[in-house]
Amino acid sequence: MAGVQLKNLTKNFGSVEVLKGIDLTLNAREFTVLLGPSGCGKSTTLRIIAGLETVSEGEVWIGERNVTHLEPRDRNIAMVFQNYALYPNMTIAQNMGFGLKAKKMPRAEIAARVNDAAALLNITDLLSRRPKELSGGQQQRVAIGRAIVREPSLFLFDEPLSNLDTKLRVEMRTELLRLHRGLNATTIYVTHDQEEAMTMANRIVVMNGGRIEQIGAPSEVYFKPNSRMVAGFIGSPSMNFIDARVGAHTLETSIGPVALSTKLARGDAVLLGFRPDDLTFPDELSPDQSAVTVDFTAEFIELLGARGIVTLRAAGHEFKGMFEQRFLHRFAEGETIALALSHDRLHLFSAASGERIAA
């Protein structure tokens, strides 16, 4: 399996610059997710790696080969799309083996590869059927099988689960992870769904506005976001933010002063962030935990089973809190409750640039 390297990758569509100098090295055998909001450039990046889009500037390397100007068929890659793209008049076996037949591979070898892939994906009993006889999940397995039989050096997935219902998406995530580990494959996966990224990736590449905001393991982008954009995009509900200004020894905010743990110039404007699940009750803090306590008014309680989201208000601002079900009885809509924020769970960002301020 091969790694991928993008060097100063730029893509223009007319006067619109979609990719703005992407430099990225993806390791062989890793499951890398390109994540970001719609229009950030993640699918364009994937299509350039596949050879389906040309570059305006820069280079694409797969393994030791510069493939920037090679046709897709010469890159030894396989791509799985969200719409499956199966031929309705062919059987499943014919669909899976179509690319190999086009390469004039011997019939016996095609059959062997198709059967092996079908067994891996548990769709052997579907090989004689046609696409219209299959469910969405089964069709997606066929599309993945068609990629596997090619034995590529690189698998590319462009939002492959977006057309599936929630239950099937969760099941297919597990199947894709099992497949990735079984094949020991290099995989690049595009999605705008941060839950997919967090649960599947070895590394996440967060993109925004044609640039890379952060590259890191799921835990890294969640607990140490490089920017306000990453902090707000990763996590559900998203991070809470409030404007703050540096005082003598504290951050001055509309919800009260917060102890300052970073050397900043007095008067500097910053953005204070905290995640919904970092709110807790004062009596749940350990004796050595330093925290700020804030009086919130509970507005709404949304039960999600084992956990619940509480919409809170303080000093005219709305916040979200995430609490285990056993704590939800403490909240009453319209009533005030004291909640604590541990200082070591707070995040600081520059108000001007949005970049993280190190503690």
Question: Can you describe what's shown?
Answer:
By secondary structure, the chain is of the alpha+beta class. It is built from 8 helices and 20 strands. It has helices spanning 42-50, 92-102, 107-121, 136-148, 166-183, 194-200, 218-223, 228-233, and strands spanning 4-13, 16-26, 31-35, 57-62, 65-66, 77-80, 154-158, 187-191, 203-208, 211-216, 240-246, 250-253, 256-259, 269-274, 279-280, 291-303, 307-314, 317-324, 336-342, 347-350. A 6-stranded mixed sheet has the order 6-7-8-3-9-10, sandwiched between helices. Strands 13-12-11-14-20 form a 5-stranded antiparallel sheet. Strand 9 and strand 10 (211-216) form a beta hairpin. Helix 2 runs parallel beside helix 4 (136-148) and helix 3 (107-121) crosses helix 4. The longest helix is centred in the middle third of the chain and has 18 residues, at 166-183. The chain is elongated. The two termini are 40 Å apart. The model has no long low-confidence stretch (mean pLDDT 92).
Element order, helices and strands?
EEEHEEEHHHEHEHEEHHEEEEEEEEEE
Q: Supply the helix-strand structural class.
A: alpha+beta
The tally of beta strands, per DSSP, is: 20
Count helical runs. Answer: 8
